Every structure is written in C-alpha cells, then in structure tokens.
Amino acid sequence: MRKLLIIALATMLPLFACAQKKGFKLVEKSGPKPEWVGKGSVQDFIIVQSDKPTLEEAKADAMQKVRADIASSVATNVTRTVNSYTQKTVEGTNASTNATMSIESTSKIAKMPAIQGVSITKAETYQELFQNKKTGEKYYNLYVKYPFSRFDLVELVTAYEKHEKELDDKIAGYEDGLDNIETVEQVDDAITALGALSKELGTDDSRYFTVEGLINRYIGVYDNIIIDIVDNTTGKLTVKLVYSGKTITTSQKPRVSSNCATQFVVKNVGDNMVVNYNSDYCYGQDDNYVEVRFRFGSKFVKEKAFFNVK
Hints:
Blueprint: E1 25-29, E2 45-52, H1 55-77, E3 84-91, E4 94-101, H2 106-109, H3 113-116, E5 124-131, E6 138-147, H4 150-177, H5 184-201, H6 207-223, E7 225-233, E8 236-243, E9 246-248, E10 255-258, E11 262-269, E12 272-278, E13 288-296, E14 299-307
Antiparallel strand pairs: 1-5, 2-6, 3-4, 5-6, 7-8, 8-9, 8-12, 10-13, 11-12, 13-14
C-alpha cells in the first residue's frame, strides 16, 4: 500500500472547553477533570466534546463527531487509484459515450460498517452536569477521548480501498457480460444485481450513473431478442431465441396460442424449443397459425408461424 498522504490525527483544530452557559452552575461531575480535556489533539486519540440536555443525547452526538473525524481521516488518506468509466447510451442505432469519474466522499466512507460500529464503550469519558436553579433546566457537558491509532487508520483505509476495488471489478464484469450473453436469465440476474449495486452506491458516487447506464443496456437486450423459426411443419413447430446473431436460451416456457390448433406440448431440445400440437380443427382454406410468445422483463417477444393443412 502506498504511503499515507496525511495523518490527520495530530492536526485537528484545537478543541476548547465549552463555555459555561449563562445562568447555569456546575452541580455534578464524573470525577477529577482529566488533563486531556480541552486539548485539541492527543496522538493516537480523537477528542470531541458535546453539550446536550440529556447524557444519552450528548453521548450520541459525541460519537457521531468521532465517526465523522474517522471518516474524514480515511477520506484524506485514501490512495486508491480512481477509475474512470465510459457510460454508453444507445438510442436506436445511435450510440454516445460520456466519461465519468469516481469521487471519494466522506459521507460515503462514514457508512462503512467498521465506522458505524464505533462505540463509546471503547472511549475514556468525562462529564459535567450544569443546572439553572431558577428554571430547573439542565445540560450535560461530555468529553470523549476515543482511541484511534495510525494502525487503525491504515486498517480502515485498506478495507475501504479493497471494498471499492471489488465494486469496480463488479461493474467491469457486468460491462464485459454484455458481450457474452448466453441466457435470458443472465440478463434478469444482471438487472437485479445492478439495481442493488445502484442503491449501494447512491447518487453522490459517479459510478451510480455508470451502473444506471448498464441497467438500461441490459434492459435493451430484451428489445433485441427475436424468435427464429427453425422448422415449421403441420403439427410441429421448432423455434429458437436469437440475440445479436447468436442463439440464447431460457428456462422460461413460452405461451402458445393459435386460431385453430389445440393440445400444445412444449419441450426443450438442445437450444431449440419444440411445440407439438393437434391440427384436427384447422382447415386448408384458413390462414392457420401458431403464435409463440415470451415475456422478458416488461417486454413481449412473439412470433406467428403460419402452416398449411392438406
């Protein structure tokens, strides 16, 4: 891993003790005031202060500040190579590309499970209770000294970069997958997985738009699947699905209908689908047909096969 650019732990702005609010007096404290209270920074620790009406509110606020400081330190020291992506938009026969860039954000880093799991139980604390005797109002002044070493920082940066690379690899994999579609279910699965990935990234990550573009391209696959008639004889119809000039398959059974035929039996034979049917109620003077229809996503793909009756 490349050398960290900046270690922010020792360069935080000075933190001064919270000024006592007018009309309030100190009525209780948790013990002797530690020497670190009011210091801006202590090596391998994060120090924050919060004053709230209740102790629980002060704890929650203080830990939120700790998480924000940790996330800021990680964001400052991320050395992952930011990948560029090409978002392709296809409309009819026209294609355009837009370059996008992934940007690290503190708010995104703050969502890391390791940071969200930061607990006050690991911290050293000191608290003071102030009260306004005239109004009865109270507030707590809480100081938190949370352990966060250089090793902790490196560990979080490494975990973040690893996770982001995994996301990059997923996106690249789905990009490559568009050129290697063999089944309709592959398209279904990609759309579902990319939808989940889109929610994980959020709109503040430029890769979100790359993923949304990929979803649209996978949905576009449905528009370009055709049913090709392999063989058409009275009582038996053989078809296959074709995308981009190549045969693809599906586990989905088609819906079969006709203006006269009955008793349809559909089975897969290799990459083909064979439809056997009864044509006893079809007549030579009519335009007899069997229609095969699939639904892929919200798209219907269908084909009519006309046949003669002697």
